[in-house]
Every structure is written in C-alpha cells, then in structure tokens.
Specification:
By secondary structure, this protein is α/β, with parallel strands linked by helices. It has a single domain, classed as Alpha/Beta hydrolase fold, catalytic domain (Rossmann fold, 3-Layer(aba) Sandwich). It has ten helices and twelve strands. The strands form two sheets. The chain has an eight-stranded mixed beta sheet, sandwiched between helices. A four-stranded antiparallel beta sheet has the order 1-3-4-7. Helix 1 runs antiparallel to helix 2 and helix 6 packs across helix 8.
Length: 319
C-alpha cells in the first residue's frame, strides 16, 4: 500500500498531497505529471511467467476476474482468485541457503506487487536470500475502476479507528490467505533441493495486510513454522506468543495514520516471552513506504533488516 498521512483518511490517494506541493514549487507541467502518476490506471494483467500456482484452488464464490492497475509508478493486483508464488533466486555464488516468503499489502483487497513484492524480492536475492513473492487470494472488489476506488475509500475512511481482527480469529477471518501462505511454505520445502534452500531457514516478511498474514501464519497455525519473520508497518497490538516463536523484526513510522497511533504491545509480548525481537520506530515515513526512496529515515528499514538477517546468520551458507 502506498504511504498514508495523518492529514488524510484515504491512504491510497495521498499522492495528491505531493501533487499539491509540486504545484506550489514546480511548474504546471510538473504538477500534471505528478497527478498522472498518482492516478489509478488500468493495465493488462502481466504474463508472470515464473509464477507457480499454489494449488489452493479458486477463491470460493468469486465473480470478478483478476485485474491490475498502475499507481505511483508501481503495479498493483486485485481480485486475485488463484494464488501463486514467484521465485527470485540469488546467484548460486552468493546464495546462503536461507529463503523468505514476501507478502505484499493492500488491505486484503489489492496487492502492491512492485513496492512490497517484486522490488523487495530482487533486493533480497541480491543479498543471497532466495525470495518468493506470494500473490495470495483477495477479497472481491468491484470489477470497474470507479467502483473499486469507492470501495477502497469506504474501507480506509474508518481504518484508523476500526478495531483489528482478533489474532485467535485469524484462522477464520483469513482462511483463504492462510491456506495460501501455508501452501507457499510447503512448496518451497518440497523444492528445497532444486532451489538450493535450507528447509529449516525459511522466513516470512509482510507489509501492512501482508504483515497481518505473516503474524497469522506464525501464531495461528502450526504448519508453516517460519524461521524468522518481518512485520513492516503492520499492527503491533498484543498477541499470545508461543514459547518457540521465531525471531521478529518490526518497523513502523510514528506518523503512520493506520497503526502508528496504536499501542506496540506485541514488542513487549515478544520480550516477555524471551523471544528475539528488533523494533524500529521511525519518526516519519507514513504508511506503505516499502521500497520507495524517501527523504525520511524510514527508507533505511531494508538495510536494517538485512543487517538483522546477517546477525542471525541468514546471509552465511548453512552447514
């Protein structure tokens, strides 16, 4: 999801604030270019030649077909009815044997496939980590763009105030998405030899809704068993932490209008359970900063995450 801001209840349209600034400091041509970039524009569904179907079947009751659009210079998918996994494998000379499932966000109604998916996976592969972008099934939205925009506006207009789903209800509330996530881990482990992956060193990182899915995969199931997890601008409310919970890296901006003004008890819960946790609270960055380059320290989250992975031995070849 694209960055949000306290001054607006509509995170996916906040790029218009940049357009206003551009109009003040730049020429009318610059302002128009920014508006064009921020506007949702339908695009053809990409070929996705490397994507592998996860075998969890079509989304029950789905009527709208998968479609894609471009916004903020990035690609987004919606109405995903068939889950897939796209591998980004490192150069064998640099491969450490560790792997990670990358879960983009988008409120379970869209997926930020570039900023929180492919771009993250490419960067991880460059560090020697085998990365796998999961395109999980989504809640249906109107097929037409105008209807979709309105549905997102309705959802986000109260998102900062709405209560979050209870962790113990995740197995029900996120049943299709959890099935997809579990299937992703199963697929990677089944092809561990082919992909030169250590089946005991497979982690997961998620952004916003993808972070919710990451936590549900970790805490609401016993099937995936990620070796480490990353929660990037997801909710950090209290959850029951199992004794064998994996090391967790968490990052969020204090000015995140969705989750920045809530409590961060999950960090205390992890510490109380005596499980490894690293937490970065950035002063500014909004919501959805992902791999976008920004003039805020939140841009440093990826380097910090890679350093954390290195500290846990994930950049070194396994025994």
């Amino acid at each position: 999801m694209k960055e949000a801001n306290k001054t607006s209840a509509l995170p996916f349209r906040l790029g218009h604030l940049a357009a206003i600034a551009c109009a003040v400091w730049c020429s009318p041509i610059c302002a128009q270019a920014q508006e064009d970039k921020d506007k949702m524009t339908s695009i053809a569904v990409p070929a996705q030649r490397d994507a592998i179907e996860l075998g969890t079947g079509p989304l029950p009751g789905a009527k709208a077909k998968e479609s894609w659009h471009r916004q903020y210079g990035s690609q987004f998918a919606r109405n995903v009815t068939i889950a897939t996994l796209t591998p980004f494998l490192p150069d064998p000379a640099k491969a450490s044997g560790a792997a990670i499932v990358v879960a983009p966000g988008g409120g379970f109604r869209t997926l930020s496939m570039d900023n929180e998916g492919y771009d993250v996976a490419r960067a991880l592969a460059a560090k020697g980590i085998a990365a796998f972008v999961i395109k999980y099934r989504l809640r249906q939205t109107p097929a037409d763009m105008a209807g979709f925009e309105k549905s997102m506006q309705d959802m986000f207009s109260g998102a900062a105030r709405a209560p979050l789903p209870a962790a113990n209800n995740a197995a029900t509330d996120l049943a299709p998405q959890l099935a997809d996530s579990i299937a992703a881990f199963r697929l990677i482990r089944s092809r561990a030899t082919q992909w030169h992956v250590d089946p005991d060193r497979i982690g997961m990182i998620g952004f916003s809704a993808g972070a919710m899915l990451t936590m549900a995969t970790t805490l609401a199931t016993k099937d995936a068993k990620p070796a480490f997890i990353g929660n990037i601008y997801g909710p950090l409310g209290s959850m029951t932490v199992p004794q064998d919970a994996p090391p967790m890296f968490a990052a969020i901006a204090a000015d995140d209008p969705l989750f920045g003004n809530r409590d961060f008890k999950l960090i205390d819960d992890w510490r109380a359970a005596r499980r490894p946790v690293e937490f970065h609270l950035y002063e500014r960055g909004g919501h959805g900063f992902g791999m976008y380059r920004k003039a805020t320290t939140s841009t440093g989250w990826f380097d910090a995450f890679v350093g954390w992975l290195d500290m846990h031995g994930m950049l070194k070849p396994g025994n």
